[in-house]
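Re: the request from the purification team.
They wanted to know what the chain is likely to look like in 3D before they choose a buffer screen. I agreed to run a prediction and write the result into the notebook, where they can find it.
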Amino acid sequence: MSEKTPRSKSSKSKAGAAPQAPTPQERFVADLLARGEAARRDKDGNLPPGVTHEIVDDPKGGPPKLVRRRFSIS
């Protein structure tokens, strides 16, 4: 009979690994975008109604940079 040695967790392939859960910051930004509470200024420099955060930078491959501009009372 052959002896079986336990494999360490580090030797497992990561190809079948489940995706990592988003960080709280990533989730917050995603939720703002999904609810329509974050947007860029229009051509006149105004934010649309209901928007609380302005998108000031949108780097490729990363989350957008947001700045709070208003408060919502709802």
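For the purification team: The first strand starts at residue 38 and ends at 39.
Please add any questions underneath this entry.
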